[in-house]
Fold:
Amino acid sequence: MSARNILLIEDNPDDEALTLRAFRKNNISNPVVVARDGAEALDYLFATGEHAGRDVSDLPQVVLLDLKLPKVDGLEVLRRVRADERTRLLPVVILTSSGEERDLVEGYRLGANSYVRKPVDFDAFVEAARQLGLYWLLLNEMPPRPMG
Structure:
């Protein structure tokens, strides 16, 4: 069975490049699907719009979700993921530069599995990506895939 992908929902091209570079540097070889706004992320997860026809049961291993997104913000993406039976158990890690306590509280209230503040320093970011990859891709046990 091939490695399940990572869904990175990130609108900042610099943060996207930094995340992908940090994964490469840490030998995280899972394919990464990038959605650059909340609407695109929902289209991917629910196989609608430009992702119509995609196998909706082929869920990512983990979703890395930024909060400050165009079109549909990250908390609304999380709300919709948790409201749908097909994606309710999907691991979602909020990966954001937001230090606002209300974002942290609301993220957990809506069902985030983890909340990680993006380090500003590249080396710290690489280390955070290494730890995220180690935990979510190797240590964490996933619920069985839903039957489609």
